[in-house]
Inverse folding.
């Protein structure tokens, strides 16, 4: 797609997903008639959710359930491992993922119903592990805030991951929850280079603005983890120690990292982006990625997919462990509390005598 049409977007094309029978490409019809082709605009449709708690069974992640207020993400991070999920909607994991979004306006109502079930068993819910709940759309729709209000009323533990500074709007909910040990937040910073960030994650807040969010959350008593994620070999991984240091200085009390992951359609999208923006180092970057995944662009093996394996992956891991020890970030946040959970009384319920 022409560069002027995709201005402010991460992907270069709208190539269809893996389930589609036919491909779509933009071509001229041959007529010498001027045709205005405006910049791609964000489109939003609504989905009436029937359930919102997604149960997962992966032994290498620290949670067993998640929640997604939105499908797709306007942040447009070219490397986002969630892009292939748009193929299930019959949409492109490329430009459609960041321009054709789905909001779930009844998510909070459904969440309250699921948490009220007698069959429900309490455990922390993760939000932001697929698409960012604090993407720009949240300012207009407020689905995430409505879900947070439900979690607060049920005194339910939640772990949030985001690049969005809109999370600061919800300090009035998050700070009291944090005081009870019910919330922690991870802020992802991929690079401190504002120019690189703008090209790689075009509609995210700047790195310095995200660090300011770390400070605001930390000052409010919310445990914050600085996430150097994803690290791109030979592009952003030289900044690892600086990112961790900047996070610590802003108030983060723990840290983590994940190497770049390129599942399914993301691999081609990423390599096209590399050739457009960094053709001089594309081969070097992809060579390191293949070295970390047994010669393949990506391997989904548990306990290897997040960090990779081999000499280069081991070197990055050693650098990370040395850095967090020196910075005092080599501590884990305490487990979120599950003992406070209770279903709040509803209108018409008989009140307890005690």
């Amino acid at each position: 797609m022409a560069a002027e049409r995709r201005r402010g977007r991460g992907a270069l094309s709208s190539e269809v997903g893996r389930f589609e029978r036919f491909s779509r490409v933009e071509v001229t019809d041959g007529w010498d008639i001027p045709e205005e082709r405006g910049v791609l605009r964000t489109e939003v449709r609504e989905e009436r959710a029937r359930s919102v708690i997604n149960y997962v069974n992966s032994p290498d992640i620290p949670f067993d359930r998640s929640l997604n207020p939105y499908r797709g993400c306007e942040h447009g991070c070219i490397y986002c491992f969630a892009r292939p999920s748009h193929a299930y909607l019959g949409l492109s994991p490329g430009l459609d993922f960041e321009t054709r979004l789905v909001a779930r306006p009844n998510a909070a109502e459904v969440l309250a119903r699921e948490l009220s079930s007698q069959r429900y068993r309490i455990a922390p819910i993760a939000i932001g592990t697929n698409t960012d709940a604090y993407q720009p759309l949240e300012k207009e729709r407020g689905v995430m805030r409505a879900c947070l209000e439900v979690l607060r009323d049920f005194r339910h533990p939640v772990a949030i991951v985001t690049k969005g500074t809109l999370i600061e709007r919800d300090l009035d909910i998050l700070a009291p929850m944090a005081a009870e040990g019910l919330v922690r937040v991870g802020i992802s910073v991929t690079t401190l280079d504002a120019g690189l960030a703008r090209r790689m994650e075009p509609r995210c807040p700047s790195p310095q603005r995200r660090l300011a969010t770390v400070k605001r959350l930390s000052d409010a008593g919310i445990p914050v983890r600085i996430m150097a994620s994803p690290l791109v070999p030979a592009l952003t991984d030289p900044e690892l120690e600086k990112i961790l240091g900047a996070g610590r200085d802003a108030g983060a009390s723990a840290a983590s990292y994940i190497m770049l992951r390129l599942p399914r359609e993301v691999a081609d999208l990423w390599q096209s982006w590399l050739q457009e923006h960094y053709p001089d180092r594309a081969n070097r970057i992809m060579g390191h990625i293949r070295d970390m995944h047994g010669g393949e662009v990506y391997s989904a093996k548990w306990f290897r997919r997040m960090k990779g394996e081999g000499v280069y992956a081991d070197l990055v891991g050693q650098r990370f462990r040395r850095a967090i020890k020196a910075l005092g970030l080599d501590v884990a946040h305490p487990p979120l509390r599950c003992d406070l959970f209770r279903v709040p009384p509803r209108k018409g319920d008989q009140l307890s005598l005690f």
Notes: The chain has eleven helices and ten strands. The chain has a mean pLDDT of 94. The first helix runs from residue 95 to 99.
